[in-house]
Structures
1.
Amino acid sequence: MSTSAAKVSVEKQTFRKGKKPEQDGPPHKRRKLDRSQLSSASPGLTFAPSQDTSTSAFPRGQSTTTIDPELAVDFTTQATKNGESLATLRKMIFGRLEYTSTQTDPGKYLAIDCEMVGVGIDGEESSLARVSIVNYWGAVQMDEFVKQKERVVDYRTKWSGIRPSDMVKAKQFEEVQKAVAALTKDRIIVGHAVHNDLKVLLLSHPGPCIRDTQHLAAKHNVTSSKRPALRNLVKQELDVVIQGGEHSSVTDARATMAVFRLHRKEWDKGFRPLPAPGAGGSNKRKHIESSEPDVPTPPGRGRKGVSSGLSTIVKRTPQTKSKTAVKTTSSNWWTTLGASGITAKGSMKL
């Protein structure tokens, strides 16, 4: 064995035993850096903690690129479904349509969607923060932010898309509530799980004037789920991806209306038509009264509950066991009690 080979074998043995190889010369000593001397020597020199540019520029768990969902949508297709153009409905969802003057009116159908923020302990309670209403064609009728009366614990920006800057021009809850009630009066509300929206608005609406796409989709077997999510329903019916990131109540309201338009003819069959504007609950009574033949009113019959002064008071005397009529022509009627076999009440013959 040569000298070099023997030296390599010795080094391997020392490493296996966990011992560091011996160094030639004296051992090196580490010196601590005295920052006070450096700062006094060069006052303009400052030391900043080092940052990992990889973690600051690309936070963990977040995507570095944002994919626009509109890029994957086919807006040029000629396909139709239930008489509705899929391209038109897709453009409506993303606000790519141009409206005429008549299409900007509220109309008969209004789709509503609300966004909430978290208040209370740990932000678990939901508070109304934004209301969006669109008409049948997708034109925005209302889009208002609501000022919060409590401290917002969680803005839920990841889902609601609401930030503290949106509260600068927000309106009071009572003002928004009255505007929604006035706009939706005598109109049909379309929404996805719309009972949640009405609950946070503290409003009620007649049942025949509500079209809940979540309930109707399950009722008519459009989807196998009893409570389908809006994004799944839109993906299935229109092949459009929504709610991939921050939600927009305007986009969600338009998507809800698009799904409803696909099935409007079938879903409207189970509801009775709306009454004429300004008609109340007395229409049924008026119809019954108008269908009755005109009968002349006899004298003495005026309005119900009001005396005309021509009525006659009739007294009915109780009939006795004997069918003999009692004549009361004389003013001294008591003198005739013993005549013709009529005995007085309570008398007894021995």
2.
Amino acid sequence: MTLLPLTILLLLHIPFVCSSLLSLNGTSVNTLDGSDPPSCSNTRSLWDIIWSCAATLFACTWTAIHTNIPGMDEGKFTVLSRRLGIMIMALIAPELIITWATSQFLSARDTAKAFNDAFGAQLHQARSDCADMGECAATLLSEIPTTDRANSPHPSALQVASRDFREWTVMHGFFAWMGGFMLYVDGKPRATLRPEELKRFIHEGSVELPIIAEADIEDRSKGDALSKGIAILQLAWFVVQLVTRYVHNLPITLLELDTLALAALAGIAYGLWWKKPKDVGRPHAVYWKTTASPPGKLAYEYVVDVLS
């Protein structure tokens, strides 16, 4: 799994290595030849430089990339190919990855705020108006005809107030935008719901508001402290090495400078994706109510039709 991206990294950066070896002050090309053993502690071979840069780039990009939830019919090879493609894009055009991460972060924040304003405020208002839930329930039930309560697919005010709504965070917003909610109709998966579709269906009473805690989303995420720690240690070791060589007036190759710049940009993207779940394999099921009329064409169904 790691040989292919490392090979790609080497092919992409060999021109930088060749140009940097010729520009070293006071250091000949023979000194950095991989076949010559180091003669002193300040001498590094060509492969030492390449391996250090490749390991740092791989650790930073592999950890920083947070892909969306794959489709129901996508295999492991497709998921891995997509991830490697994003990694290559992060190396060739890192500014595009930062722009993408920024857009996802802003969308996730706006989605969390929209759901909290729509459902959290409504729930708090209903609870504050009903100090005695028994008296409130009796009042609401007396105002709604029996036939309407039995036939209407829309939830009553009592149902909205009694829901165990949990405030949405940015992680919920990320989860919604990365395909975290799958609509099931008649027990079969229909399509992934966009946040605006989920919100509209909840307002219409066609689906229930998904109750999923942030801890449950984190449990689905594959990002652990070990992988993050290894990436941070690798980057810290690389930076300390460059700083030490700079302090002692030792030459630094262009490949190392390029690696440091790409690692810094990957760190920015990683910060924007800090709350985004990593490598989630399955979405959360949202079931269509049998009392509601069948849904129309969904946004992701249009995308599938166009691509097919």
